[in-house]
Write a structure and sequence with these properties.
It is a single chain. With about 270 residues, the chain is mainly alpha-helical. It has 3 domains: about 45 residues, no CATH class; about 60 residues; about 150 residues, no CATH class. Strand 3 and strand 4 form a beta hairpin. It is globular.
Length: about 270
Amino acid sequence: MNLAVDAEALRQSALLAALLGAEPGPHARLAERGARRHRGLGAYRANAASIAERALVAAYPTLCALIGAEDFARLARALWQQAPPQRGDLAHWGHDLPAFIETQRDFDEWPYLADCARLDAAIRRCESAADAQLERDTLAWLAEHPSDVLRLRLLPSVQLLASAWPIAMLHVAHQREDDGGFAEVRAALAARRAESVVVARSGWRADVAVIDAPMFAWMQALQARCSLAEALQAAGGGFEFNAWLVQALQRGWLWKAELIPAPEEKEHDPDLA
């Protein structure tokens, strides 16, 4: 037993319980007394709402711009009560905010808010994903192997999102400091213009690109580890592979090509373990 680890776990448990106003158990109460001396839990408890708000503002900037600081603070407090953090690092809290928005009747007039939050979350995942580089040599396999034994892998940072609303337009409009583009956004909302997007890193910052339905279906199939033959079938007749490949290389979507293991080899495939 690692006493130092156990003591730290108890201390973190007590800290979280105090922040949420919960009544800790006997062991947690003991740890809480020490944590109060060193961490000032009373001050943390008094400022829990502002802690929650600050944790979410950085993660959901478009949503915050859309609904305003006051409503965003209220939403953060409501989420804090409904789905409190389960760990000490608040950077990992708030992933369920988009689904939570859909339960809030106050926002029924703006049905696109949840998907805007999902795009914010996709950008956050993209920017914090593990780094990887294009394995260009593997692309030679495209000319050497049939499509049913080959698959393409997107970079780990790539995120896909389809919405019934113009989420990319909303995102771009709320990154600007002026009001330019809002007339187009209002027209797109009125027309219920759907948008599918791919989020990928350009340097260390996320880039949001709008793609059409065949390309989205194709990239979804690639993320599902389908063979090229299966992905082409999912994309349908409107998909142009060569045009996509050029764009994927230019925008940094593509990671590598790889051979699909034979059935007897799949149990040794680290990606399927």
